[in-house]
Amino acid sequence: MTRTNTPTVDEYWEALANDLPTFSPEDQRVAVTLYRELAKGQPVDAAQLGRALGVAPAEARGFLNRDSIKVFVYPDDEGRVLGFGGLAAAPMHHRLEVDGRTLWTWCAWDSLFIPEILGKRARVVSPDPDTGELVQLVLTPDEIESAEPQNAVVSFLLPDARDFDTSAANVMATFCNFVFFFASRTSGGRWVAKHPGTHLYALDEALALAKRLNARNFGSELARRRADVAV
Description:
Blueprint: H1 9-17, H2 25-38, H3 46-53, H4 57-64, H5 67-70, E1 73-75, E2 81-84, E3 87-88, E4 94-98, E5 101-105, H6 108-118, E6 122-127, E7 134-139, E8 144-148, E9 153-157, H7 168-174, E10 181-182, H8 185-193, E11 198-202, H9 203-230
Antiparallel strand pairs: 1-2, 2-3, 3-5, 4-5, 4-6, 6-7, 7-8, 9-10, 9-11
Helix pairs in contact: 2-3, 2-9, 3-4, 6-9
């Protein structure tokens, strides 16, 4: 797909936002807490989530079964949360290093919005699927601090209306498997030419979309936590 066929960031966001679930204030608190517990590097069970939230395990299990949460939970064989909303405690294509721990993300875009949710500086290492060249980024919760190569780009796919309301496995298969970092627009162009419906954005465009996603899904909870830290 050529650059002229690429939707603007505004056009893409408008189409994407219509298909995303809505998180209540309580759902936001649960989701952000779950991200931060999973970022400790191990699968999270209801007891651990409950301790972090200050509730009983039974209540935490109820939270995990809420529609807006459950659809983004990828469980392990013991029913613990192995992955949630783009973050994983098991090896995947995109490596995310936070606080000396190695985590992974489901897609390239996850690597851009998760540092803000965690409130942590992060290093991203992800192979270009066309050339194998490593794309390496350093992110703060607010910005991309450095990128190598500097002209790296990100592939995106406009999701179907059902991609985000079925299961985490479905999100991975139908959306995440099309969202990668590329070392250059040249290698990215070769890849998107083989994958109909995909297109490329520059890193700053992909980050702008990441900021919109966090503001929509978790804005009030992230603002509350930032205010608590500032006190």
